[in-house]
Amino acid sequence: MSETARMALFMSIILTIWGLMHVYVAHRLWRLPALAAPHAHLLFVVALSVMWASYPLGRVFDRLGLPSVSYILELAGATWMGVVFLLLVSLLALDLLTGFGTWGGPRLPAMRAAAAGVALLLSLFGITQGVRAPVVRELEVRLAGLPADADGLRVVQLSDVHLGPLLGEGWLGRIVETVAKIHPDLVLVTGDLVDSDSAHVEVMLPTLRRLRAPLGVFAVTGNHEFYAGLDRSVKLLQDSGFGVLRDRHVEVRPGLVLAGIDDLTARRQFGLRDDGLSAALSGRPAGATILLSHTPWQTDRAAEMGVGLMLSGHTHDGQIWPFGYLVRLQYRLIGGPYRIGPMQLLVSRGTGTWGPRMRLWRPGEIWVITLRSGTPTISGT
Question: What is the C-alpha separation between 144 and 307, in angstroms, rounded?
């Protein structure tokens, strides 16, 4: 199957699921007293149809060169994406409690209206959390093989920044300023710096070039770099002054090796069968190894191959609770520090957001990792 056919199939599945979510929500809200007025049902269906189409239409208008129209549609559609998910969850929870309406009796419409109200309140709270600056979290990691003179090095991890129309240059500038105040020795970007179109991010190059550290800034690709056009996305990273680790390693200082691989999720989606992990780790110098992999897969293999610290993202830790329970069906490790044998794994919730600028109980984050030499241990906040 060609890449175009794979993406067409993927988008068809996504839009079908998106449509079924709207059908379920519409069916459960259909008999609300607020929709009893003349023509209310027609307006309700039209409004839901418009909101269903707004996000994909925003992308279409963006490619047609109408950024103002695109921004309004994409912002509305992205926000609605979070709202309709919380509506579905609230109404489904009520269905489970009432035997899908069997035990609700005449109070059922009012109960469904209350469930919808809860979803809207959660949406407002999620928007408030989503637009806040990411929190700075600290972690201390001991790495076997790390030279004593490298003890105390500070590493900043940024992940899933998702730069584009919704998260633009002003927001990026604040992230860069936050990183500058930390004074890290090394900055690592674990994929999805770009959201959907590299052209939106190329205008932010002057700001991206301000992201600096004594030992350098290094990045790997995420699935969205593939979606945005891999070659152009990689060039953008390189033009930003980042070292791009595509199935390779580099010794940033004696005894400290960085390795990075192209995204494993995108590899699966695009039918790529090559072994990036072996290519990245083979023949590396002695010392401690930090692996950058956007998707937190192949963790056991990485540990067996001598990686001391693996940094990932991609999952957003669900971003909007309780979406994380669905994410776990595909990704076993979705947020926070984990121990994989002798290896420390850190899966970032993401610095930015994908889709809705909403987060529910899952704030965005910037990790500051202090490296220590000696027996591997992990502690964090």
Answer: 10
pLDDT at 184 over 60: yes
**8 A C-beta contact, residue 211 and residue 181:** no
Beta strands per DSSP E along the chain: 135-143, 154-158, 186-190, 217-220, 243-244, 248-253, 256-261, 288-293, 309-312, 336-340, 343-347, 365-373, 378-380
Helix (H) or strand (E) holding 300: helix 299-304
**CA distances (Å), origin 9, targets 3, 22, 79, 269, 314:** 10, 20, 25, 11, 21
Domain with CATH 3.60.21.10 in the chain: 135-380
Residues 6+ apart with CB under 8 A from 137: 365, 366, 367, 368, 380, 381
Read off the pLDDT of each residue in 330-347 and give the average, rounded to a whole number: 96
What CA–CA distance (Å, rounded) separates 249 from 267? 19
Q: How far apart are the C-alpha atoms of 220 and 160, rounded to whole Å? A: 11
Look up the CATH number of domain 135-380. Answer: 3.60.21.10
The number of CA neighbours under 13 Å toward the Cβ of 277 is 20
Cα 157 from Cα 178, distance rounded (Å): 12
CB of 199 within 8 A of CB of 234?
no
H-assigned helices in 64-197: 67-97, 108-131, 169-182
Amino acid at 201: V
CB count, 10 Å around CB of 238?
Answer: 12
- Looking at the DSSP bridge assignments, the partners of residue 186 are 155
Q: For the stretch 18-57, what's the b/e string if a residue is b when 16 or more beta carbons lie within 10 angstroms of its beta carbon?
A: eeebbebbbebbeeeeeeeeeeeeeebeeebeebbbbbbb
Strand partners, 359: none
pLDDT tens digits for range 11-48:
788 889 999 999 999 999 998 988 888 899 999 999 99
Q: Which residue has the higher pLDDT, 201 or 1?
A: 201
Burial of residue 141 (CB within 10 Å: 0-12, 13-18, 19+) is: buried
Rounded to two decimals, the pTM is 0.95
Q: What share of the chain is helix, strand, coil (3-state, %, to 5)?
A: 45, 20, 35
Q: Is 341 in contact with 307 (CB distance < 8 Å)? A: no
**Nearest Cα to Cα of residue 70 among 51, 84, 91, 56:** 56
